[in-house]
Amino acid sequence: MNSWQHLCVAVANPFTRHSLAVRKAGQIAATCGARITLFHAFSLPYPLNKHEPISSKDALSNAIQYRLIGLEAIADTLRYKGVHVDCVVEWDFPAHEAIIRYVMKSKPDLLIADSNRHGRIGRWLLANTDWELVRHCPCPLWFVKSNKNPINLSVLAAVDPLHAHAKPSQLDDIIINEAKTVISNLGGSFQLIHGYQRPLSTANSNFIEPIRPPISADRSRRLVSSIKAELDKLAKRNAIPVSNCIIKDGIPSDVLIESTSNLKTDLLVMGSVSRRQLKRLFIGNTAEIVLDRVRCDLLIIKPHSFRTDIPRQTARSGFHVKGL
């Protein structure tokens, strides 16, 4: 398995001392010997560390230095523990695009970020940074929700052996490989889980019909048997004991949330496939639903074929400052 060399931490507030993502990144880096980059992007050049009238260029430069001082203070708490830390501040927006642009340039092994809980209405109406990272981030994305030390983790890898909604067939193998990489770097064990919804009728239509013949018990048994056969095949291909595989009937997001709680999972690993808005409206995105409701950390994986549509260059002229 790959050894993590570079971790990038998205820091929303460079003046806080209570970021779970920064703390956990430091613990991960100290365990596996990786270096860390603390990355912060901002859109407005305020507050400034000077109040006299100055040019817009100087104002922006001062704003960057002001935030960089805050990041460096955070970095020093990690350096004290022997972790190599760099600090990067950029004037770029929106936040998720700035983060992804930096990820595309620096190519870290992991992007680590705090996850903020938001209401259901917010999920529909707001372009939240968390959800935009889920949709567009090209590298593995670790959302920190727990303050537990990330050593000897209990990992649950969510797979879809039947490839519902035409997910890339290789995504399950990538998810499993990332789960193994986590265990290789941090220690622990992992299980595979698949949640499926048993069809309620034999009707093929997506619309409500006056009469919907219920699915027969025999067909239901054959469905479960086919799922188990495919999951066993996936496990065997990746040298995983069949005893480490879990199949549960239910809405996939509900199955994952309930199972992580019952199994005391430390990290849930799952895939995400970015879809166009209309398709997302009808299908939904399990990763986005789980993000707000699960209590353990979440590691989001993209297929190898994924290409983010975030432009590499911002249309705005900006500044880039690394270190002091």
Task: Provide keyphrases for this structure.
Rossmann fold, 2 domains, 39% helix, alpha/beta
Describe the fold and architecture.
It is a single chain. Strands 8-7-6-9-10-5-4-1-2-3-11 form an 11-stranded mixed sheet, sandwiched between helices. The chain contains 10 helices and 11 strands. The longest helix has 24 residues, at 56-79. It has 2 domains: 1-138 and 307-324, Rossmann fold, CATH 3.40.50; 148-306, Rossmann fold (3-Layer(aba) Sandwich). The chain is 39% helix and 19% strand. With 324 residues, it is α/β, with parallel strands linked by helices. The relative contact order is 0.16.
Q: Give the mean pLDDT.
A: 85
User: Based on helices, strands and strand pairing, what is the structural class?
Assistant: alpha/beta
- Compute the number of helices: 10
Strand content: 15-25%
Short description:
The protein has 2 domains: 156 residues, HUPs (Rossmann fold, 3-Layer(aba) Sandwich), CATH 3.40.50; 159 residues, 3-Layer(aba) Sandwich (Rossmann fold), CATH 3.40.50.12370.
